Amino acid sequence: MKKSLLLFVFILSIAFTFTACKKGFKLGSKDVELETQVDTFSYVIGMDVGENLLTQKIEVNSEAFMQGLVDALEENSLFSAEEKQQVIMALNQKMQEVQMEKMKVEAEEHKKEGAEFLAKNKKEKGVIELPSGLQYKVITEGKGPKPKETDVVTVHYRGKLLDGTVFDASYDRGEPIEFPLNQVIKGWTEGVQLMSVGAKYEFYIPSDLAYGDRGAGETVPGGSTLIFEVELLSFKAAEEKPADGTEPK
For a designed S-S bond to 187, which of 4, 170, 205, 235 qualifies (C-beta 3.0 to 4.6 A apart)? Predict the structure, then answer.
């Protein structure tokens, strides 16, 4: 009961603040005052829409925009629902093209940054560069046989961007990960085959051996050179499926 009362008082205080804070602006030749809560909410909704349009770099005619808004509220639109949908689809296509171009430019910037880093890094003590462009440094060496591309490996790892941001780490989750070595990024497939059980290496993986221009979700931008600390815990041969496609028993 007390919580409900406090919530009501809180909402009431917000409403009072909005209605008490009178502001004005000029719309064309008309002076507009924000005198009520509805006035303020209406203006802020318009602000939010405008800021989103700016963020997404969508060019609009403000007069046509305002007329469309008024027509929609008065249920007197120029376009049918089907026509509106066609325009929206065309707009979405344009937005996707803009986004793709932005991602392409950013990927090129990250690739340039990565190339500069790798050119400098390969001169560091203990760093070895392979013909593929993959670089690595031995932190701890292991003993015994090394996994094949077709094996299943169990590892602990920590992945970082060049600025030091950790985007993924099995260490943080408190448990290693197991996966077929030929089903991960090329830099891992090549690099982990150099290791014996007990080894810990640091890999410096150019974008074409990592996630390429597409990146990986929101955590790894396109074109990123990645740094992985990898510890090989074990490996085993992958189980083959029987010829009839059933799972092995």
Answer: 205
Say whether 211 is catalytic. yes
CB 211 within 8 A of CB 224: yes
- Residue tagged active-site, from 18, 65, 117, 167: 167
Report the C-alpha dihedral over residues 196, 199, 201, 206, rounded to 10 degrees: 30
Judge whether 204 counts as a catalytic residue.
Answer: no
**Which position among 136, 203, 204, 211 bears the catalytic label?**
211
157 part of the active site: yes
Tokens 């509805």 belong to 38
pTM of the model: 0.66
The fold of 123-237 is: Chitinase A; domain 3 (3.10.50)
Any catalytic annotation for residue 43?
no
The confidence band for 27, taking pLDDT boundaries of 50, 70 and 90, is low
Domain coordinates in residue numbering, the chain: 2-78, 123-237
